[in-house]
Amino acid sequence: MSDDCRLWHGAGLFTSIAGAAPITDGALVTRGERIEWVGAAAALPTSLRDACVVAHDLGDAWITPGLIDCHTHLVFAGTRAQEYSARLRGASYEGLAGAGGGILETMRATRAASEAALLAASRPRLAALCAEGVTTVEIKSGYGLDFASEAKMLRVARALGEEFPVTVRTSFLGAHALPPEFTGRADDYIDTLSGDWLPRLTQAGLVDAVDIYCDRIGFSPAQARRLFTAARALGLPVKMHAEQLANLGGSLLAAEFAALSCDHLEHTTAADAAALAAAGTVAVLLPVAWYCLGETRRPPVDALRTAGVELAVASDCNPGSAPGASLLLALAMATRSFGLDQAEALCAATRGAAQALGLGANRGTLEPGRIADFAIWNIGGPEELGYWTGFNPCRAVIRAGRIVHGELQRGH
Ligand code: NIG
Ligand code: FE
Fold first, then answer.
1. CA of 72 to the centre of ligand 2 (A)
2. How many CA atoms lie within 13 A of 129 on its CB side?
């Protein structure tokens, strides 16, 4: 429909296409919910320009793909500010978890919250992400740890996707921690998740992917294998929290199952990186968790790059290890703390993140045929993203070709 054809110009374009240079005077044409054309304004065919009924002259802006937050736990009740105080005084994340706090503390609050209360608690966090140009967000379960509460979390995630102008992808993270009902019976718990909860939640349309916390205070690779085998039988993609506190061999197992992503990776080796690359598994870096846990060991970014692993960066929004809701802050931390450059970090929060959610064919870059999800920024160049630290220069957000946040013209 030609009346649905819009031109967006007067802006630079950062397409997130691998190896592509930024376009300083760009033009982007959308038709309905898709991108029709992207390039230098001077190269825009006259016939296409004439076909555009609406032309938005942005005047001194930059356009990037909509940001994608591919790892969040943003549906939860309560806080863990008290635990944070204890950690500041020297208590360890693992020690608090071993004493029945940590994830189980949030489990108690989340179980006790009504569905409406959980939705209300989660809204401001998602609103903060959307205001930063996020157009797709992954939300995990994993603080319910019983069937009804896991289902409640996933329904809230779906409801947020209806209420906000954002695409929500859910991950079932029942294997986040061992709930008290299964103390001493981790294998039984994995069997229950695999054989009962996961099929029912999938049948209810609540699950897009399956995740597991594979670590010393989580589950073993052998347990992950059983869960992943069940996920595969249901046709669901898998992902893993791996090598955060120690290397248990999780990323090798994830690679064996061609996981969409492996996340954290502070203790990943060069051999693990080679396996991830061969499997096409994305490495999701979570610098806010690294920072807030006071970690010193960094993920091996050089080894991941050398192996050719696609990188993603995410907020990890959760009440324990990463209390916040800012993907822009994660980008800034990924540059300063993990050594990504700004363009690499921006690609990681767009193209890499789309791949980490299995959405790489339609999202994450500005290319003809892709969904027209993009953000308009009050910046002088794309190097300002991953540079501003605790400042949000997002002017407006476009989702599927329509303005969903902010104003197109710069305010005065
Ligand atoms: O990604 N590591 C496991 N899961 C979360 C933290 C969850 C929590 O502490 O509540 C993470 O860091
Ligand atoms: Fe996480």
1. 6
2. 35
Per this entry, what is the length of the chain?
412
For the chain, list the domains and their CATH numbers.
Answer: 5-66+365-406 (2.30.40.10), 67-356 (3.20.20.140)
User: Other C-beta atoms within 10 Å of 333: how many?
Assistant: 24
Under 8 Å between Cβ of 57 and 28: no
Work out the end-to-end distance of the chain between its first and last CA atoms, rounded to an integer number of angstroms: 35
- Among the bound ligands, the one closest to the CA of 140: 2
CA of 274 to the centre of ligand 1 (A): 25
Q: Which two tokens stand for residue 131?
A: 């205001």
Closest ligand 1 atom to residue 213 Cα is: 3
Apex CA 359: angle with CA 247 and CA 371, to 5°? 150
Mean pLDDT of successive 10-residue stretches along the chain, which has 412 residues: 81 98 98 98 97 95 99 98 97 96 98 98 98 99 98 99 98 98 98 98 98 96 98 98 96 98 98 98 98 97 98 98 98 98 98 98 98 98 98 98 94 64
pTM exceeds 0.70 for this model = yes
